[in-house]
Known about the structure:
With about 70 residues, the protein is mainly alpha-helical. It has helices at about 1-10, 40-50, 60-65.
Amino acid sequence: MIRHFIQKIFRRKPAVAANSLRLIPATEHVIVPEHISACALKTVKALQQGGYAAYIVGGAVRDLLLGLEPKD
C-alpha cells in the first residue's frame, strides 16, 4: 500500500509545464532591480551558471511589483 502511494506521487506530472512559462522582459514590468537583494541575485546567477533553472518567484515578485523590497 505504501509502495503504491509513493509510486503514485512520483508519477505525477508537474503542475506547470516548463514550456508554458513566460519570461517578461524588463521593458514590460515595473520591477526595480535594485530592490532585489544582492544575495538573492548571487544565488540565482550561481544556480543558472551551474545549469539549473532558477528564478525569483512568489511573494518576492509580488512585493517587487508593488514597489516593495522583498523580505525573504
